[in-house]
């Protein structure tokens, strides 16, 4: 079970965007995520008239390592860690480590 999923609200804990919050747009591999509105980079692209794409400088989100983000706990308004709790019937659920509440 992944500790982070799409549409989780996360906060950046280190790097140039430290303190910024956003939601996970997509997971890239096992250890990288793209967060909406965080880690913006400029990409110089060549136009393609056959596809109707204009050239120029495009600003887009780049992937971050999962070690640089933490899930955001709305109860405490702080970053938190994710724990996995296994129920009696074997079902797993994600919880916040600080207060034990369900994430989902």
CATH architectural category of the domain at 9-75: Roll
Low-confidence runs of at least 5 consecutive residues: none
H/E element order: EEEEEEEEEE
Q: What helical percentage do the residues reach?
A: under 10%
Instruction: Find the CATH topology of the domain at 9-75.
Output: SH3 type barrels
Structure, explained:
- The chain is 0% helix and 46% strand.
- The chain is an all-beta fold.
- The protein has a domain at 9-75: SH3 type barrels, CATH 2.30.30.
- The strands form three sheets. It has a six-stranded antiparallel β-sheet with strand order 6-3-2-1-7-8, with no helix packed on it.
- A hairpin with a 3-residue loop joins strand 2 (21-28) and strand 3 (32-35).
- It is elongated.
- The two termini are 13 Å apart.
Describe this protein with a few key phrases.
single chain, 104 residues, mainly beta, two-stranded antiparallel ribbon, 0% helix, elongated
């Amino acid at each position: 079970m992944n500790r982070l999923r799409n549409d989780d609200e996360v906060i950046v804990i280190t790097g140039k965007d430290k303190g910024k919050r956003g939601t996970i747009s997509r997971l890239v591999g096992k250890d990288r995520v793209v967060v909406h509105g965080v880690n913006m980079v400029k990409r110089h692209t060549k136009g393609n008239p056959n596809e109707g794409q204009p050239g120029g400088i495009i600003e887009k989100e780049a992937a971050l390592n999962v070690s640089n983000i933490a899930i955001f706990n709305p109860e405490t308004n702080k970053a938190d860690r994710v724990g996995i709790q296994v129920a009696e019937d074997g079902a797993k659920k994600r919880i916040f480590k600080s207060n034990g509440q369900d994430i989902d």
